[in-house]
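RECORD TYPE: protein structure
NAME: Class I SAM-dependent methyltransferase
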Amino acid sequence: MTEYPRDEISQRGGDPEAISDRYRDQKPDSISVSWTGFLNTIQNEDTTIEYINAIQETLATLKRRKRERDTVMPISALWETDAQQQLITEYAFAIPTREALDYLIKQGPLVELGAWTGYWAYELDKRSGDITAYDIDPILDPWFPVQSGDQDVLLEYGKAETLVLCWPPVGPMAYESLLLHDGDVIYIGERPGEGFKAFGDMRFFDVLDARYEHVTQIDLPSHPGAKDNLHHYRPLD
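PREDICTED:
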């Protein structure tokens, strides 16, 4: 990551001392999805999305295994020990829906940072979405061609592109991306509060609150214990 002069960062709205603390004490009752809520949601989702189809097939396999082995272990425990992390590793943390994908396509062209497996980009490209994906350490054999790059690549783009961050990694990447990008931002993941997992950092959410208008929220089917949503933010004038 390039070292930018502090006065340049401050001009982009990045002075941490001037940022709101709104989320630091925010404690919603609960934002995590239960096992029952997960099952009820996932069984009604679009199986043309490969992640959704894989989840439904995995659940059917676990049910059959439990029946054949007559095990006392509940399906939820089998899911947690045998399936969930494997699916996350193969596809992504967040689970896309047709509504979310259609919405993202309308916000194109898209630039995704931290694309990891490239799965969301793959589903968007399959539907003729305009997306370029980057990751600081691209994996071998991704779903979609993921280029090597960190937040510095945003200097090549402008307001015309929408920045996409899906479960950005722990650390300053997401926050610094806001300082280097002048356009809209779509964040996919959880918000601070109970159930909030460790990704990004609080400065990222503080800047979003202080410098952006929250345009849209789309609920996503979430793995048990999480609560992912798609959030669209637009810079304030």
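COMMENT: The two ends are 27 Å apart (CA to CA).
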